[in-house]
Amino acid sequence: MVRPLVALTTTIDAKGGDYGQPRVAAYANYLLTLQLAGLTPVLVTPAHDTKAISQLIDGCAGLVLSGGDDIDPSRYGRDPIPELGPVNPPRDVAECRAIAAAVGRDLPILGICRGHQMLNVYFGGSLCQDIATEFRDAVSHDQMTPWGAHHHEVTVHPDSRLAKALGGNRFEINSYHHQAILDVADGLDVTARADDGLIEAVESRHHRWIVGVQWHPERHEARADDGDPNVRLLRAFAAAVTAYAREG
Fold first, then answer.
1. SS3 for 212?
2. For residue 113, which of 27, 28, 67, 130 is within the disulfide window of CB 3.0 to 4.6 Å?
3. Active-site residue 216, yes or no?
4. pLDDT (tens digit, 9 = 90+) per residue, 56-95?
């Protein structure tokens, strides 16, 4: 069986190569777990121009927005605060172009961590630039335990695509972020929250399948058994992509 193609966004480091030249990058776990879910990932990078991104998205049946750098607050009408982390404007541009192309074709989209935040910004929402600064009563969301280990629990809205995919409404997740969704974009519904109230997942009410999660389902826990919630989430996305590839 031919695996459907799915676009995966990457970052770019302006001086990351051996010769101080720009280099694109993505963690291999994204590619590995998407392949385990039955998909073939295609990299979409900030080095691609608008036409190239459009052509790449046209050849795919879904889009994954990966984690990484902070989003430039000018994109949601805010001035930067001192606690803002490194931003990557070329990546912001490339991902907005990728989302626009994917939304134009109503492709399934999965946003992971930064990708979840980028979906909210793209559709008109805003972000908290630093949780510790702006939400002093929040629990720690930037875990120091091993990569992918569980860190805190979330409650998922029972009448959501996410709850259906995960198979329940209360889960432990990993947590590697210092920013979070603040104002939710019109057209997005909040479908999961941490116990401190921070938004952990959103989904679109107007599109075929657009889901954003603040955690990382692609890390080592996503290689667990078939009943693992993150395995279920990735497979639900893969099922939506496969259905799109078959039916258009």
1. strand
2. 67
3. yes
4. 999 999 999 999 999 999 999 999 999 999 999 999 999 9
pTM metric for this prediction: 0.95
CA dist., res. 176 & res. 170, Å (int): 19
Tell me whether residue 152 is one of the annotated catalytic residues: no
Alpha carbon separation from 116 to 103, 120, 190 (Å, rounded): 15, 7, 11
Catalytic residue among 48, 113, 141, 203: 113
What span, in angstroms and rounded, lies between the C-alpha atoms of 116 and 233?
14
Catalytic residue among 95, 200, 203, 218: 218
128, 151, 216, 221: the active-site residue: 216
Q: How confident is the prediction along the chain (248 residues), in pLDDT tens digits per residue?
A: 789 999 999 999 988 878 889 999 999 999 999 999 999 999 999 999 999 999 999 999 999 999 999 999 999 999 999 999 999 999 999 999 999 999 999 999 999 999 999 999 999 999 999 988 877 666 666 666 676 667 678 899 999 999 999 988 998 888 777 899 999 999 999 999 998 889 999 999 999 999 999 999 998 666 778 888 899 999 999 999 999 999 97
177 Cβ contact list (under 8 Å, min separation 6): 113, 114, 131, 141, 142, 214
Residue 247 annotated in active site: no
Phi/psi of residue 130, nearest 5 degrees: -155, 115
Superfamily of domain 5-247, CATH level 4? Class I glutamine amidotransferase (GATase) domain (3.40.50.880)
